[in-house]
Specification:
18 helices, six-stranded antiparallel beta sheet, five-stranded parallel beta sheet, 942 residues, Rossmann fold, alpha/beta
Length: 942
């Protein structure tokens, strides 16, 4: 696969970025902060499902440009099926964006949804395994990681490459589930042992407990009899106390009512006094109203006259203001007429001067136009000659480019054919080393074991059912009488019932234990099913891949043959073209000579001068037009102003009499206001006392009502005092309430003590009974725990055997993969360096240890020189890419970062060998180390 172009909108620092990529090596060159890593991040998360820069798979918010609500990544790429596709990934601040994939030739067939798109991308980019894991660790090499991965600690190397080779499942089973199971069994075993000892130590003497229970039951019966007697005495006292309480409550209620009635009578007397004061005040207000009524009426009459005069004054004020405004406006209009006549004279002089200049420029323009017309005719003839020569030059370029391109394609096809043959040989060796028929037989055996386990589980269920039936039969036939025939059971005649059924229980329990042991033993073998199935799938995939490779070899051979024929045909066409038209240099020379002659005409300069003259003429015409309009406008304005003065003078004559009327009305208003002040006091007195005087009749009626209520209240108070005296006399004949309550409290205290005592006795009895019950249950529990300890011990042994087997399986699977990668890496290393050493990558002695072997001597990766480390790392990465992918695409992110001079030079010298085998590669860097070998350099700037 290869990327054609990428578009970024509002992603990181890129607001709207479009970048095209070429086949071969593309160099992304730029300083820090220019967005190089952002482009790689966009490729990773969109094409390969990689994490965002901070390691978070869903960290989309921080990569959207500040102030924007969404970002878009759009990548056009050529898939492994030779079709062009576009994948679009929209990221949003809130909510979900879209993630879709479609063929550029069929845009209506859109594939969307995260899982569906990624599954399709696996096929198109050629990564059948974990898309993100293979991309992060094989396709892309991040800032010197491609060397450091092999120099990490043992544990870190193991985690990384177990994950890449997908053998971490065995480690996960060993360190995870199986270890948890073993620890669980061990913890249960230790716990049950400790539980067993504790239970045995806690057992009590049953005879002592039974004696204590009998003594306690006698004491409880005596106490219950005493409690019943005390409850009867308390019941009688409660009735007496209730009667006495009722009489006391009635007395208190009556006393409260008397107090309330006395307060009500006091309030009535006070209200009568207050109402008398209001009657006196109303009579005084009535006298004042009678005294000032004439002044009040005079004030009202004058107020009406004032209102009428104020309305007239308002109308006269408006007319007077209008008269003054007209006088002022006529003066301003006369001044404007004087100014307008001055502007009119100046505009007439300027218009005459500009008309003379217009005639002169028109004559000069006509002469220049005729000269340019003649030059254009000559230029058109020369351009026709050039147009006849240009297609010949382009035809020669097309033929030459086609010839060079076909030679390059032929060389690529030859290289591809050699690579395909080499891959075919490697796959053949791998298939021959692993006998598919034997592996499938092993898989079939495991399937049979699984079926046998299922049958044993069914048999186990049947045995458990028989054991349960045996127990039920024991209970039903405990007296040797058949519950259905109501007669002695013939099968049990002359036999001990308990021994008979115990023997059957023992036989069934023995069979059940044996079945469980076999199930657990067979389950260990069955657990190898998934690992073996994966291995068979990989071999079948390799067989299919070998068939595809052989078909591709035939296709590539045919392509090479057709390409060679096309090269000969193009060579013959170029020779015929030169014979007829001359070579490219002679055609270019003719075109250059004609272009020189065209340039000497200098039509452009003359045309510019003509344009300037035209613009000057248009400008002058416009200015003359503006002057004429100004003259006309000034004359019209002068006439309009004279008309306005005439109209305003007529209006001014109409308003001439209003100023004198305005002054007369103003004097009348002043006179009325002074007269109003004389009657203002009488008017105010009537207003303030009129309401109080009108309430006199209401106050007199209220007085009669209050006196009637007072008389009735005094009568009610006398009746209440009489009833109170009767109740108090009756209370003296009853026993004291306090004495009754004292006796009641004493009896309750005695009863409470007895209840407490009986509660403690019952609690002690319950405790003793619980201890007896608990002791019996403990005996049964001890028997169950002893059986469980035996089962747990057997489970622990089986789990230990299983863990030992699964621990070695991961190493064996990874060692098979490493042998194949070592073989491919050795070939790469020999191509890069020209040396005969062998790369050994093994997982036996130390996790994923890389070394270089020469003869009998083996040198670890850490002890190699800087240049050797780079060559080995590149060779292994190329081998892993061939093993785990079919993408023919790689990315190097700042590969020279933190490398010393030796490692940097070695990387530059060696990386080209590996990149030749790829369809496309991208190197991100800030220096020029790889500029010379790049097919395209993309420079990014801030």
């Amino acid at each position: 696969m290869r990327i054609n172009n990428i578009t970024l909108e509002n992603f990181r620092i890129h607001e709207n970025k479009y970048i095209e990529f070429e086949p071969g090596l593309n160099l992304l060159l730029g300083d820090n902060g220019t967005g190089k890593s952002s482009i790689l991040e966009a490729i990773g998360i969109t094409l390969f499902g990689s994490s965002f820069r901070d390691g978070n798979i869903k960290g989309q918010k921080q990569c959207i440009k500040s102030g924007k609500k969404s970002a878009l990544i759009k990548i056009e790429f050529l898939g492994n099926d030779e079709e062009v596709y576009i994948v679009e990934n929209q990221l949003k601040i809130s909510g979900s964006g879209f993630y879709k994939l479609y063929n550029i030739n069929h845009p209506e067939e859109v594939l969307s949804g995260n899982d569906d798109v990624k599954e399709k991308l696996k096929v198109l980019v050629g990564i059948p395994g974990d898309l993100r894991e293979v991309y992060d660790n094989i396709v892309v090499a991040k800032q010197n990681e491609f060397i450091n991965n092999y120099k990490q600690k043992d544990s870190e190397r193991q985690k990384l490459f177990d994950r890449i080779f997908e053998t971490d499942i065995y480690r996960a089973i060993y360190d995870g589930y199986s270890k948890e199971v073993f620890n669980k069994y061990k913890a249960e075993f230790d716990f049950e042992n400790m539980n067993l000892n504790n239970r045995k130590n806690s057992l009590e003497n049953l005879e002592e407990l039974s004696l204590s229970i009998s003594t306690l039951e006698e004491k409880i019966n005596d106490t219950n009899l005493n409690i019943s007697q005390k409850k009867n005495e308390i019941q009688k006292l409660s009735v007496q106390i209730e009667e006495q309480n009722k009489k006391e409550n009635d007395i208190v209620t009556l006393k409260n009512s008397i107090v309330s009635q006395e307060k009500s009578i006091s309030n009535l007397e006070k209200n009568i006094k207050d109402n008398d004061l209001k009657i006196d005040a109303a009579k005084q207000s009535l006298e004042i109203v009678k005294k000032y009524t004439s002044d009040y009426e005079k004030y009202i009459e004058l107020s009406k006259s004032l209102s009428s005069e104020e309305n007239l004054f308002s109308q006269l004020d408006k007319k007077n203001s209008e008269f003054l405004f007209l006088e002022k406006e006529i003066g301003e209009l006369k001044n404007n007429i004087t100014l307008c006549e001055s502007q009119l004279q100046n505009a007439q002089k300027e218009s005459l001067s500009k008309n003379e200049a217009l005639k002169k420029l028109s004559l000069e323009k006509e002469e220049l136009f005729q000269e340019i017309k003649l030059d254009n005719s000559n230029k058109a003839e020369l351009e026709k000659r050039v147009l006849r020569l240009i297609p010949l030059r382009e035809e020669y370029d097309i033929l030459k480019r086609s010839y060079d391109s076909e030679i390059g394609s032929s060389n690529l096809l030859v290289n591809n054919l050699n690579n395909l043959k080499e891959s075919s040989n490697i796959l053949s060796n791998f298939i021959n080393e692993n006998n598919l028929e034997n592996l499938e037989k092993d898989l079939e055996e495991i399937k049979n074991i699984k079926l046998e386990i299922e049958n044993m589980k069914n048999l186990l269920s049947e045995k458990n059912a028989l054991l349960k039936n045996n127990q039920e039969a024991l209970n039903a036939l405990s007296n040797s009488i058949c519950p259905y025939l109501k007669d002695n059971c013939k099968n049990l005649e002359g036999k001990n019932i308990d021994d008979y059924f115990a023997t059957k229980d023992a036989e069934l329990n023995s069979e059940i234990c044996e079945l469980k042991y076999k199930i657990e033993e067979y389950s260990v073998s069955a657990n190898n099913f998934d690992a073996l199935n994966i291995k068979i799938s990989k071999i079948k995939e390799s067989i299919n891949e070998l068939k595809n490779l052989n078909n591709l070899i035939i296709q590539e051979s045919l392509k090479i043959e057709n390409s060679n024929k096309e090269i000969e045909n193009l060579k013959l066409k170029i020779e015929n073209f030169i014979l007829i038209n001359g070579d490219k240099d002679s055609i270019i020379s003719k075109i250059s000579s004609i272009n020189t002659e065209i340039s000497s005409l200098d039509i452009s300069k003359k045309s510019k001068k003509l344009d300037l003259l035209t613009k000057d003429l248009e400008s002058l015409k416009f200015e003359i037009s503006e002057s004429d309009m100004l003259i006309e406008k000034s004359e019209n304005l002068r006439n309009e102003l004279n008309l306005k003065i005439d109209d305003l003078s007529i209006n001014l004559a109409v308003l001439h009499e209003f100023p004198s009327k305005y002054e007369k009305c103003k004097d009348t208003l002043t006179k009325i206001r002074k007269e109003l002040e004389l009657y203002k006091l009488g008017y105010s007195e009537v207003l303030s006392n009129r309401t109080t005087a009108s309430n006199l009749a209401e106050f007199q009626e209220l007085k009669l009502q209050l006196e009637s209520d007072l008389k009735n209240g005094l009568s009610d108070l006398e009746n209440m005092n009489f009833n109170l005296s009767l109740l108090q006399e009756d209370q003296k004949n009853l026993e004291s309430l306090s004495q009754l309550k004292t006796n009641f409290d004493k009896l309750n205290a005695v009863l409470e003590t007895l209840n407490k005592e009986i509660g403690e006795l019952n609690q002690n009895l319950k405790s003793l009974n619980d201890r007896v019950s608990k002791n019996s249950k403990e005996q049964l529990q001890i028997l169950e725990i002893e059986k469980k300890i035996l089962r747990l011990n057997k489970k622990m042994e089986l789990t230990r055997i299983f863990r030992d087997n699964i621990k070695d399986m991961g190493i064996e699977v990874s060692e098979t993969i490493l042998r194949e990668i070592s073989f491919l890496a050795t070939e790469n290393f020999r191509k890069i360096t020209g040396r005969a050493e062998q790369i050994i990558w093994s997982n036996l002695e130390s996790p994923y240890l890389v070394s270089v072997k020469s003869g009998e001597q083996s040198i670890p990766f850490e002890q190699l020189s800087g240049g050797e480390q780079v060559a080995v790392a590149i060779a292994i990465r190329g081998a892993m890419a061939r093993k785990f992918t079919n993408t023919k695409f790689s990315i190097f992110d700042e590969p020279t970062n933190n490398l010393d001079l030796e490692r940097r030079k070695s990387l530059s010298d060696n990386i080209g060998e590996i990149l030749q085998e790829l369809d496309q590669s991208i190197i991100v860097t800030h220096d020029d180390t790889f500029r010379e070998m790049a097919q395209k350099v993309i420079e990014l700037k801030k």
